[in-house]
Amino acid sequence: MQNIAEAFSLAFALVLSGDADLFEIVALSLQVSLTATLLSCLIGLPLGALVAIARFPGRGAVLVVMNALMGLPPVVVGLLVYLHLSRSGPLGFLGLLYTPTAMIIAQTILIAPIVAALSRQVLEDLHGEYAEQFRSFCLTRRQIVRALLWDGRYSLLTVGLAGFGRAVAEVGAVMIVGGNIDHLTRVMTTAIALETSRGELALALALGIVLLVIALGVNAGVQALRMSAVRQAYV
Amino acid sequence: MSEARPLPASLATARAVAVPILPLRLRGVGLRLGGAVILDGVDLDLGAGGCTMVMGPNGAGKSQLLKLLHGLTAPSAGTIDWNGHAPQAVRARQALVFQKPVLLRRSVAANVDFVLRARGLDRSRVSALLDHVGLAHKAAQPARHLSGGEAQRLALARALATDPEILFLDEPTASLDPASVQAIERIVARAREGGTRVIFVTHDIGQARRLADDVVFLHRGRVAEHGPARDFFRQPRTEAARRFLDGQLVV
Q1: How large is the ipTM?
Q2: Which residues are registered as beta bridge partners of B169?
Q3: How confident is the model over A90-146, as pLDDT tens digits?
Q4: Mutate to test the interface with A, among B63, B85, B105 (most CBs of A within 10 A)
Q5: How far apart are CA B172 and CA B98, in angstroms?
Q6: Is the N-terminal amide bond of B23 cis, ω within 30° of 0?
Q7: Which residue ranges run through the membrane (chain A) (predicted)?
Q8: Read out DSSP for A43-105?
Q9: Which of residues 163-192 of B touch A (CB under 8 A)?
Q10: Which of A128, A172, A207, B227 has the fewest CB neighbours in a 10 Å radius?
Q11: Residues of A in contact with B144 (CB under 8 A)
């Protein structure tokens, strides 16, 4: 309990002091996870929409795989990305290992399936409502996907949020491909892991509190947006 | 709304000069859904022009008939021939207004704009179309905040946006108040006067009397009667139609 109380006061002190290292870590965390979320949405949303409207042999198996991939262990993803980016790996020539780019790649692989699987469910429900009307309008598949993504945009915000939450909270993948290098690849979760292993529990907890507050802020923002959409009957 | 305003000719889409899709000819059309027989041996001929009212008790297959004609469902048996074309091939030249309007989660204007853009039509027609159905003053409002009657008028504006040769209406006025019914009937009458062939499913005998040129009476998945409206209402040939018009329960 003493640790928790100390952690809170330390967290406040850290934020109020304008600690440059802390802000660097927070900024990198947000940069990596938001970029990964954006990329995952660019990949996962159209993919989810396509699977939502398409009927093809083996669709059931595709759904099982998509859903199973939501549970990808971060360390496994980290390891796979590491093997590809390491000097002896097929993409070693790019020199990306231990860079924020490698961390973004790993987190994108981790959360794109989450975005795809969840958006598939959301958009399939929406398509169930629109399908006959869209067929009457003689829309192309591309037009249907675009219309579903636009009309489902507020529900899809929550999907993106789930991806962001997973990305910003994971430690295994970024630790392996980023290496937790100070001033280069250190993010909130790897910093927390490091401080914990060094016995600096209060500092680790303080960082955890900052992370929670950021997650809370992002969620509150999205929730406010959704509420306004609900009032407009756009959800 | 006092009256449906006409679409200015300059704003109406020029109807593509193409092979006419009427007359329509159905021979031996059957539809089975999940083992149940919905339509059975339907023979029907519809000529160009006018308003056909499709009537009959619940479960007679009226809505399913519209979906077959519009190419949304494929028949289990028989042929549907739009002057040599299959229903799917001419769907873009038709429009269907569903009983429960399916409105997009967008503004009223954006709902109409969506169809115009999707079909590559002149998007500046949005306000004229909304004005035509008396919804110009609600253009910026969320479509899902409209009342039942307004929502159906928006669905009609969307349907008319493509200047369809055939307009299918599946009980568009069910559960609407008299003012809304009147507004919708005026818009439909205007479309009919403008040369759009109207095929209208209704339960409302009064509405059928007001709008029909001819009546198709369906009963138990078959065309029990098809003839000029005047003859149908004056002297129905079948017992089921007689009882239906008398307001008796027909099952």
Answers
A1: 0.89
A2: B97, B200
A3: 999 999 999 999 999 999 999 999 999 999 999 999 999 999 999 999 999 999 999
A4: B105
A5: 7
A6: yes
A7: 32-54, 61-85, 97-118, 156-181, 201-222
A8: HHHHHHHHHHH---TTHHHHHHHHHHHTT--HHHHHHHHHHHHSTTSTTGGG--TTSHHHHHH
A9: none
A10: A128
A11: 233-234
Is B92 near chain A, with CB under 8 Å? yes
Tell me which fold the domain A24-200 belongs to.
MetI-like fold (1.10.3720)
Q: What phi and psi, each to the nearest 5 degrees, are found at residue B20?
A: -60, 145
Helix, coil or strand: residue A26: helix
A45 is written with which tokens? 């949303």
pLDDT category, A206, cuts 50, 70, 90?
confident
- Look up residue B248 and give its amino acid: Q
Query: For chain B, how many structural domains are there in total?
Result: 1
B119 near A CB under 8 A = yes
Whether residue B113 lies inside any domain: the answer is yes
> Is B205 contained in some domain?
no
Q: Which residues of A touch B115 (CB under 8 A)?
A: 137
Across the interface, of A139, A143, A234, the residue whose CB is closest to B105 is A234
Q: How far apart are CA B230 and CA B223, in angstroms?
A: 18
What's the pLDDT tens digit per position in A130-158? 999 999 999 999 999 999 999 999 999 99
How many whole angstroms separate alpha carbon B31 and alpha carbon B78? 9
- B76 located within any domain: no
Report domain extents, chain A.
Answer: 24-200
d(CA A109, CA A64): 17
User: Are B91 and A143 an interchain contact pair (Cβ–Cβ within 8 Å)?
Assistant: no
Yes or no: say if B123 and B113 are a contact pair by the CB < 8 Å rule.
yes
pLDDT value for B8: 53
Say if the Cβ atoms of A136 and B106 lie within 8 Å: no
Backbone φ and ψ for A180, nearest 5 degrees, come out as 55, 50
State the pLDDT confidence band at A220, using cuts at 50, 70 and 90: very high
Q: What's the alpha-carbon Rg for chain A, to the nearest Å?
A: 20
Q: Residue B32 falls within a domain, yes or no?
A: no
pLDDT digits (tens, 9 = 90+) for B182-206: 999 999 999 999 999 999 999 899 9
Residue type, B80: I
Nearest to B118 among A129, A132, A139 (CB): A139
């060094």: which residue's tokens?
A198
DSSP code for B142? B
Using a CB–CB cutoff of 8 Å, tell me whether B121 touches chain A: no
Q: Give dist(CA A84, CA A93) in Å, integer.
A: 10
Average of per-residue pLDDT values in chain B: 92
Burial (Cβ within 10 Å: 0-12, 13-18, ≥19) of residue A156: buried
A143 at interface of B, judged by CB pairs closer than 8 A: yes
* B67 vs A contacts (CB less than 8 Å): 132
